[in-house]
Fold this sequence. Notes:
Elements (H helix, E strand, L loop, with lengths): L11 E7 L5 E7 L18 E6 L4 E12 L5 E5 L18 E5 L8 E7 L8 E6 L8 E3 L12 E3 L5 E4 L2 H5 L2 H4 L14 H9 L15 E4 L2 E6 L3
Parallel strand pairs: 1-13
Antiparallel strand pairs: 1-3, 2-4, 4-5, 4-6, 6-7, 7-12, 8-9, 8-13, 10-11
Amino acid sequence: MNIYPGNVASATVFTLQNQCSYTIWPGSLSGSGGAILGDGGLSLAPGSSVQLTAPAGWSGRFWGRTRCNFDGTGNGKCVTGDCAGELRCTGGGVPPVTLVEFTIGTASNGNKDFYDVSLVDGFNVGMSVRATGGTGDCQSAGCVSDLNSICASDLQVKDGSGTVVACKSACMAFNTPEFCCTGDHSTPQTCPPTYYSQIFKKACPTAYSYAYDDATSTCTCSGADYTITFCSV
Length: 233
């Protein structure tokens, strides 16, 4: 277990577990000035897990990198989710990538946490998050369907052999206001779900399918620990 500075009494424990049949290299990115969890990145073999501890007020994200190859100094490359060719990330993963995002509460807001699983940056590997020991709604969220297998042809990312390894969001693929919710489409009223985001939502109803998918995708809980599972079933 990695322990990081903070108020231990109100610390939040994240358990990252890999149920995939292959190794996942989780990456983590903290908000400005926040504790760096898991040194920014690590390797997680099939069937293994790791616990990371965050202080009250921590915010950040986790994602899974796939098909990575690092040397002894931590330099290398991942086919999906890569972060500047480093094992220990200092920035976000290259999309398309499935994200789980957290803002851990403090005493000033009743220790209320906010969290979600997001496909706004696309999809590369199934992820879920489950709260334990908390109070409030404490919903589970995730995208456990294999979106790569149903990804629209114009959103697909393929490796050298032609295998689909990730699925772009429509915003990433087309970079237009109606898909990115920018410009004249920068409000929930002017940026409704699209054909592409509805495919994501149907497959993964508890994940953010596009920028304004708040109502069914943002979760809250107080005083919980969280289990984040790759290739959850």
